Amino acid sequence: MSGRSIRRLCFVVSLILLVAPFGVAKEEIVPVDLHEAIETGTIDVKLIVKNGQQARIVAKNNTDQPLTIQVPEAFAAVPVLAQTSQGGGGTGSGLFNVPPEKVAKHDVGFVCLEHGKPDPRSTMQYELKPISAITTDPAVVEILRLHGRRQIPHAVAQAAVWHLANGLSWQQLATKERKNLSVPNTPYFSRSALQWAGQLVAYAQQHAQSEATTAYSPR
Length: 219
Fold this sequence. Notes:
Elements: H1 3-23, E1 32-33, H2 34-39, E2 43-49, E3 54-61, E4 67-71, E5 74-79, E6 88-91, E7 94-98, E8 103-112, E9 126-130, H3 138-148, H4 154-166, H5 170-175, E10 177-178, E11 186-187, H6 191-215
Parallel strand pairs: 1-4
Antiparallel strand pairs: 2-3, 3-8, 4-7, 5-6, 5-9, 6-8, 10-11
Helix pairs in contact: 3-4, 3-6, 4-6
């Protein structure tokens, strides 16, 4: 092979290597809404509520294609046996991938919405439903969304929603204690958390009212 032929071959190979990465576009996976995927049977979902602050979505992909699931900012965690545990709101929007015919796990937050019932435990069975299955109060939903975005601590969100959803007064929340077996009981909420929660409730109610006013547009 002549020197000219070798140079020509090297040029062609270099051109192929340069163009190859751009020649085939990777197919983009469009995210699927979590509730829609459940309703259509695209995925089977199990919701594990670990405690009063944490939960986990376990999703099985029933298709032969990879899925990207979009988790809503707030959703309902409803106990199968209503009297056995507190229902609540799952929080923490985001995406997670589930390979074809495989199972994937996605951790989310949890805020109790039914004060007075037993605290959640991982052995309790829960169903994942739209947030309207447990609350229709837009102020509560806004607080859950803020918690999901990690803009407020769990204690602040919990105090605020117990005040709004279950009617606990700020005095009742201030005197609520965590019962301990080996040490004295401790306050459930700090003073600063309750002050923040009070401001949060005012903001959430104002935000909900603003949204309602914006949605109504008389002609």
